[in-house]
Amino acid sequence: MSSLSCAEFQACDAKVPSKATFYCVQCNSLQCILCEKQIHGNLDNQQHERLNLDQIDDEYCSIDKQHQAVFYCPTCASSFCYACYVNQHQHSDGREHKPQKYRGEQLLTTEKNK
Ligand SMILES: [Zn+2]
Ligand SMILES: [Zn+2]
Ligand SMILES: [Zn+2]
Ligand SMILES: [Zn+2]
Predict the structure, then answer these.
(1) Looking at the CA of 41, which ligand is closest?
(2) Which ligand approaches the C-alpha of residue 100 most closely?
(3) What percent of the chain has pLDDT over 90?
(4) 109 and 60 within one domain
(5) CA of 78 to the centre of ligand 3 (A)
(6) Amino acid 106: pLDDT
(7) d(CA 28, CA 15)
(8) Nearest to 71, CA basis, from 62, 83, 79
(9) Which of 39, 79, 87, 91 could tie 59 with a disulfide, CB 3.0–4.6 Å?
(10) Which range of residues forms the domain containing residue 61?
(11) Backbone angles phi, psi at 80, to 5 degrees
(12) Ligand 2 geometric centre to CA of 30 (Å)
């Protein structure tokens, strides 16, 4: 997959696409390191869940197995690459779909220890 570009242009130049390093669930956009810092330096935005766009080892997109996955949706129990997540992921069924980085990582509990 070719690399994704920042879609914010808050701290970077729109004419020179910067490599997107994060996807923010609440902003619903791709962000480079600089924009991610700038946007989430704001107190209101610090709680945003940002997912690093590193490809997940040994996980492939459930839409097209040639795509390397970057997200996992626990609601669908499927992995997605970014393009398929945006274009093909069905999230209009009334359930909450919140992508996360790893299959099985438990985000439902807020337990910190163990
Ligand atoms: Zn955000
Ligand atoms: Zn940027
Ligand atoms: Zn889903
Ligand atoms: Zn895909």
Answers:
(1) 1
(2) 3
(3) 78
(4) yes
(5) 7
(6) 53
(7) 21
(8) 79
(9) 79
(10) 55-114
(11) -140, 150
(12) 8
Residue closest to 57 by CA, chosen among 47, 68, 72: 68
What is the distance in A from the centroid of ligand 2 to the CA of 84? Answer: 22
- For residue 15, report the distance from its CA to the centre of ligand 2, in Å: 11
pLDDT at 1: 45
Among 10, 32, 53, the domain boundary falls at 53
Give me ligand 3 centre to Cα 12, in Å.
Answer: 31
Q: What is the CATH number of the domain that holds 71?
A: 4.10.640
CA atoms of 113 and 102, how far apart (whole Å): 19
pLDDT tens for 37-60 read 999 999 999 999 999 999 998 899
How far, in Å, CA of 25 to CA of 49, rounded?
A: 6
Average pLDDT over residues 92-98: 91
Structure tokens at 80: 């997605």
Task: Say if residues 89 and 73 touch (Cβ distance below 8 Å).
Answer: yes
Q: Which residue has the tokens 């795509």?
A: 67
Token couple for 14? 């729109």
- Which residue in the block uniquely carries the two structure tokens 């997605």? 80
Residues 6 or more apart in contact with residue 57 via CB below 8 angstroms: none
